[in-house]
Structures are given as C-alpha cells and as structure tokens.
Amino acid sequence: MSGEKTEQPTQQRLTKAKKEGQIGRTPDLGAWFGMLAASVVLPYTLGKGMEHARELTGKIPLIIADPDVAKCLAILKEGLFGVVWAVLPLALTMMAVGVAAAGAQGGIRVATKLFVPKFNRLNPFTGLKRMVGPQALWELTKSLFKTSVLGAVLYMTLKDIVPQLMQAGHLPLTALLDIVTHAVISLIRAAAVAGIAMAGADYFVVRRRTQKQLKMTKEEVKQEHKNSEGDPLIKSQIRARQMAMARNRQMADVPTADVVVVNPVHVAVALRYEPEKGAPRVVAMGKGPMAAKIRELATENRVPMVQDIALARALDSGCQVGQEIPAEFFGAVARVLAFVMSLKTRGSAAGLHRSPNSASAMT
C-alpha cells in the first residue's frame, strides 16, 4: 500500500522531530545514574554535615550560659550555610549526571512547540487508546518489574542490617550511625544498578517505538525530496524565467551597440566599445530566433551590421555576454570597428555590410 510507512526517516525528518521534542529517551536513565553518583558523594556529604553539626552542638552551651538574640541568629545563619555547602556537591553531581544523560540520549534542546496547547490532547478517545495500547502495557510491565526489583533489593539490605541493629544497644552512637550509613549507601547503590539495567531496557523500547513513529511512506520521502531539492517543474520554470529576463536585458542593450557582427543568418553578436572602459564588450549574443531579434533591433535603431562568418562564430563560442572580448579577438574586432568608422565618415553606416577583412586571420 502507498500509505504504509516502510521507509526510514530522512535526516530532515529527524531534525524536525528533535525540534519538536520527539526524541527516543527515558528520564529513568538520568535519575538512576544520578542516584548511583549520589551514593559516591553521599559519604562526603554526611561526613561534612556531621562535622558541622558537632561544631554547632559545641556552641549551644555557650548560648545557654549567655542568651543573646544576635548570637542565636549568627549560629542559625552558620547552620544554614553549613547545610548548603554540605549538600551543594551532591546537588551539582546529580545535576551534571542528569544533563549528561539527557545529552547522551539525543542532545539537549528546548522544544518550544511542546509548550503550545493542543486541543487534540484533550480527546478522551486518544487518551483511552494510550491507556490500553502497547505503550500502556509496557509502562505497566515496567512499573511492576521496577517495584519487584526494588522490593527485593530492600529486603536483602534490611535482612542484613536488622540483626545488627537489634544487637547494637551497647554500641556508641557514632558506630551505630556508621552501620546505618553503610546500609543506606549499599541500598542506594544496589537499587541504582538495578534501576540502570531497567532504564537501559526502557531506552531500547522507547527508541525503537520512536523510530517506528518517525517512519515515512514512499510518497512522504518523495515529497520531502521535492521540497528540499526543489520541484523539477518549478526549477525549470524559474530557469526559463531567468533566461527570459537575461534575453530582455540583452535586447535592451542592442541599441547601445557600436556594431553587430553576423553570420549572416544564424549568429549575431552585438559589441560596444568605450575606450575609457577598456576592450570592446559583448552586450548581446544569440543564435537562430535570438540572432534574428538582434538583427531586427539593430535595423530599427540604425546599428551597423557587419557580415563576417568566421569572426561571428568565434565570438559566439569564445565570449560571454557582459564581458570584454578575449585578447585573441582584438585585431579582428579592431578592423571591424575601423571599417564601421569609415562607413560613418561616409554617412552610410546603418544596414548590413560585408566586412572587407572577413577572410583575414584573427590576431
């Protein structure tokens, strides 16, 4: 079927999808990697927090002995700053890991199109389809598996720590805190590793689903190619219009020419010589109907026409409109211009003339 999406998305389609936020990514990957990184930074954070707490605790008796509002506010300010500086490395680490995970899954881009409200998102039938479709089934499976894995990790961790806590009545507080801290970090790391494995599977599924959604029909690929490269019909029309404009410009310059070298029927080359601007310049040139039009305008505007078959052909093949003639044509063109000047001196330059030097070599 022509409407079946069987073609891989083009680069233009992928770029458009990225701009619209349609990227195969899962937020779980960044969250679990962030948790794993947090388990590495957390001992440092807890250590700094405990150290700062001990310092503040040591100042409390001084405040009790000499109550003062300014001193209380100073200790409160110090405590708040201590919490911020202790938690800051943990927060920066998790933020950096989250940004890196997002970048690894397709780059970081603000999809402004997602902020535009779409009323079709309020369609209950579309929402019901999402609730009972394959995507909903995968989300349910993922949630159940995630809950089961995290429950198993929690059970294995608590199974080891509870007996230690039951027998920790004779242990000092610091030792007890070390046991709890070690257990919590172990729990976080085990949960993060399991979560990363699940997020990897989720990323594979989401990526595959997004690629399937971005697939294109053969007609869409063909249409996109036309849009990017240009419709051949439109391009030909543009070329035809450009050629017509170029012809019109040439026709407008024929009356300003000093001489038109003809073949005499098939080729016509109009030349204008302005000594202050350099060598003679081609102002119009053409074959067939174009040459006939140039001869007609030359006749109407009394521009001299000189028949020189060899020179006309050489100029047509070796020159371009709007440019000076090449050096190898200087001698032959100079003789034609001199011949035209002699005709003007006698008062009979207009019309078609046979060049007396048409058989001579061009030097």
Number of domains: 2
On the 0-100 scale, what is the average pLDDT? Answer: 77
Number of contiguous helices: 11
Total DSSP E strands: 5
As laid out across the biggest beta sheet, the strand order is: 3-2-1-4-5
Largest sheet: 5 strands, mixed
Using the alpha-carbon principal axes, give the shape: elongated
Provide the succession of SSEs: HHHHHHHHEEEHEHHE
Distance between the ends: 69 Å
Helix content: 55-70%
The computed structural class is: alpha/beta
Radius of gyration: 43 Å
Low-pLDDT regions? 359-363
State which percent range the strand residues make up. 5-15%
Transmembrane segments: 80-104, 179-206
Keywords: Cell projection, Cilium, Flagellum, Membrane, Transmembrane, Transmembrane helix
Region (Disordered): 1-20
Protein name: Flagellar biosynthetic protein FlhB
Which features characterize this protein?
five-stranded mixed beta sheet; 2 domains; transmembrane helix; Flagellar biosynthetic protein FlhB; 11 helices; name from scop; disordered C terminus; 363 residues; alpha/beta; cell projection
